Amino acid sequence: VQFVESGGGLVQPGESLRLACVASGFTFSETHMRWYRQAPGKERELVASITNTAGSTYCADSVKGRFTISRDNAKNTVYLQMNSLKPEDTAVYYCNTIPLRDNYWGQGTQVTVSS
Fold it and tell me: Average of pLDDT values for 11-28?
């Protein structure tokens, strides 16, 4: 099992980023997926979820209306479109499966929102 996250960077408040996570080692098209984030000194928190067919999605209240989760099963990739970024969105972002494969985490991708 492997997760490779990318797309992070340093942006100003109000700007956008699109994160991607390429997954391997399991049947991606049959697996629900989640994005998590972890800010310095804080616990990891759930950001968004998507079912295997993308028929249903969930976003945490803190990002609802600004972030959108999507997936491309042909590319084994899950995306997180992040708009109207705020300084409090600064964190390392990770993807994982449902149920959680807690022994398998990628390196994450750093998102820093700062003026």
Answer: 98
